């Protein structure tokens, strides 16, 4: 199932759009950390650059930036 949404970074207030493909059962082979998410894209709102991209493997790793990490963690908590 595909889901999308917008989350706000807790320190800067920047808004991030995300798209996530997730399943009911986890996958050790394709899921993030063996979980249910097989595809995930996060972009800063109104920017075309992906800050995170996972498509059955990492294309763009999650940066160390706190806001992006917090958004990423919230998505994992909800869908993974």
Description:
The protein has 80 residues and is of the alpha+beta class. The chain has one helix at residues 66-79, and strands at 2-8, 15-22, 37-44, 50-55, 58-60. It has a five-stranded antiparallel β-sheet with strand order 1-2-3-4-5, covered by helices on one side. β1 and β2 (15-22) form a beta hairpin. The protein is globular.
- What portion of the residues fall into strands of 2 or more residues? 35-45%
Structural class: alpha+beta
- Widest beta sheet: strand line-up: 1-2-3-4-5
Q: Quick one: how many beta strands?
A: 5
Instruction: Report how far the terminal alpha carbons are from each other.
Output: 12 Å
Largest sheet: 5 strands, antiparallel
The amount of helix comes to: 10-25%
State Rg. 12 Å
Low-pLDDT residue intervals, each spanning 5 or more residues: none
Supply the number of structural domains: 1
Order of helices and strands: EEEEEH
Count, helices? 1
Average pLDDT across residues? 95
Overall geometric form:
globular
Protein name: DUF7678 domain-containing protein
Pfam families: DUF7678 (PF24726)
Organism: Caproicibacterium argilliputei
Domain DUF7678: 1-80
């Amino acid at each position: 199932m595909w889901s999308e949404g917008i989350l706000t970074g807790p320190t800067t207030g920047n808004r991030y759009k995300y798209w996530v493909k997730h399943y009911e059962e986890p996958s050790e082979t394709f899921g993030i950390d063996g979980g249910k998410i097989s595809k995930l894209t996060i972009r800063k709102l109104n920017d075309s650059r992906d800050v995170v991209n996972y498509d059955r493997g990492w294309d763009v790793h999650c940066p160390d930036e706190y806001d992006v990490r917090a958004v990423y963690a919230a998505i994992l908590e909800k869908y993974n």
